[in-house]
Amino acid sequence: MTLECEVFNVYAGTRESFSEGYKSIRKLPDLDNTLPFYKFLTAFTRIGWCVKRSKTNENFYFEFNNQIGRIIENFSLDS
């Protein structure tokens, strides 16, 4: 997630360069199908972190909830 947020979304062309470099070493997993799961898992874990620490009125808590909402909206069982 951090790689996507802090590099891929900030610097144009870095996802493509990363993918090409990765493919030169091993087969690239199907990121379009696997990344949504990991994004959901990360957001869900962050919400748990907030709840455990009573940080449910913080902006980042609401952003994680919104992130889960966006992931669920785009979720599809079609392959």
Strand content: under 5%
Count of separate DSSP helical elements: 4
Low-confidence stretches: none
Distance between the termini: 22 Å
Largest beta sheet, briefly? Answer: none
Residues in helix, %: 55-70%
Task: Compute the CA-based radius of gyration.
Answer: 15 Å
Order of helices and strands: HHHH
User: Which structural class do you get from the secondary structure elements?
Assistant: mainly alpha
User: Which geometry do the CA atoms define?
Assistant: elongated
Instruction: Kindly report the average pLDDT value.
Output: 82
Instruction: Compute the number of structural domains.
Output: 1
Strands, count? 0
Question: What features would you describe in this structure?
Answer:
Helix content is 70%, strand content 0%. It is an all-alpha fold and 79 residues long. It has one domain (2-74). α3 runs antiparallel to α4. The longest helix is centred in the middle third of the chain and has 22 residues, at 31-52. The chain is elongated. The model has no long low-confidence stretch (mean pLDDT 82).
